[in-house]
Amino acid sequence: MALVNVINMAVLDNPTPFGNPFQFEITFECLQELEVDLEWKVVYVGSAEDVTRDQTLDEILVGPVPVGVNKFVLQADAPDPGRIANNDILGVTVVLVTCLYKEREFIRIGYYVNNEYSEPIDPEAGPPNPLDL
């Protein structure tokens, strides 16, 4: 039997520009008193081919957690574009929200992220370098 059940996770401020923080409103139920805090992480997948490009955007401890339904907003800074290859900045990637109890991951929720230009591209000039935006 699970001690913690995630009831809902809502992505706030969606869609948002690349440089804005990620925000998740997390609602979970705690079924009995926990011995230690819950550890929540937000990870941005910087490349499907290179795990070293992944960035842990935030790690927080939540606790003590009372028995019952709990809600909080998890906010994480935007990824560092300097750690992402130019050819991986635009297009689809993933952001993962995980939770650990006693150093064991018990839930992993992934969201697709589509990074694209917010303004139309001049076909004659071509797109600007994403890092120049």
Explained architecture:
The chain contains one helix and seven strands. The protein is mainly beta and 133 residues long. The strands form two sheets. Strands 4-3-6-7 form a four-stranded antiparallel β-sheet, with no helix packed on it. The longest helix has 4 residues, at 86-89.
Number of strands: 7
| Quaternary | single chain
Outline: elongated
Q: Biggest sheet, strands in spatial order?
A: 4-3-6-7
- Distance between the amino and carboxyl termini: 48 Å
Quick rundown:
The chain has 133 residues and is mainly β. It has one helix spanning 86-89; strands spanning 4-12, 22-30, 38-44, 55-62, 68-76, 91-101, 104-115.
Defining key terms:
133 residues, four-stranded antiparallel β-sheet
SSE layout and pairing:
Elements: E1 4-12, E2 22-30, E3 38-44, E4 55-62, E5 68-76, H1 86-89, E6 91-101, E7 104-115
Antiparallel strand pairs: 1-2, 2-5, 3-4, 3-6, 6-7
